[in-house]
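User: Predict the structure for this protein chain, please.
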Amino acid sequence: MKYYQLDFVFEATDMSGELMQTARDILAGLASDAGLESFEDSDEGIIGYVQTDLFHKERLDEIIQDFPLPGISVKYTIKDADYKDWNETWENEGFEPIEIGNKCIIHDPHHPVETVFPNCLDIVIDAKMAFGTGTHETTQMVLEELLQTPLTNKRVLDCGCGTGILSIVASKAGAHDVVAYDIDEWSVENTRHNAQLNNVSNIEVFAGDSHVLSHVSGVFDILMANINRNILLADLPSYHEVMSSDAKLILSGFYQEDADSLIEKAQELGMKLISRRNIGEWAALTFRA
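Assistant: Here is the predicted structure, written as structure tokens:
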């Protein structure tokens, strides 16, 4: 699998540290619509990675032209990614431990921790070119909703599984079995790898998009999708088809301004909005079948 590396540079009269981080977060969120899947900070902006056959340059140029922060311009260059170097970056840098509501602590193999709270889930995530370490607001919101949901003996679907973090938490919180899928082959392998690290054996992982659901029998009690708005809008009918009569669907990966279009689409399919979360500009929605 070949990747492009895109080096983005932000230009503004006053590029403070806070403004720089805001610009990074916004660009990373929007650029997923152009196929970009992984990011790391640089001194002048952000570096993004995209599979060569999934890159939509015209869409990226539209995003940059309409960048929503006034007074900031974005320029970028493209080159072939050095597979070895950027894989090592993901493997070696790691991330600081993250606590989710005293119910779950997430860390990488480089930052072992002692579980602080009673009955707190200890989750190890070794991120290898896959989104989902718990550091992003969208992942945190899905986890918060998931950890407030009774999962014992439930069947769970994880759409766009990334590192497998949502699947692993669901399994450790009592799910009977979990089905996960991702279009990125590295994410599929990373989910399997992280499941092994966490001694989880009830996760079945598929490579592909929502079409893989046609090969999965039965329905699900809990469905999770932390993906960009366009994919969610396109895939909502597929999710609805595999929801049990009282299923819960948790969505994130989009901005607050995109929530209304997702609510409208879900309601057209007969779903009911039961919860809405926001962290900064990011949003999460939860529906019942």
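The first strand starts at residue 3 and ends at 11.
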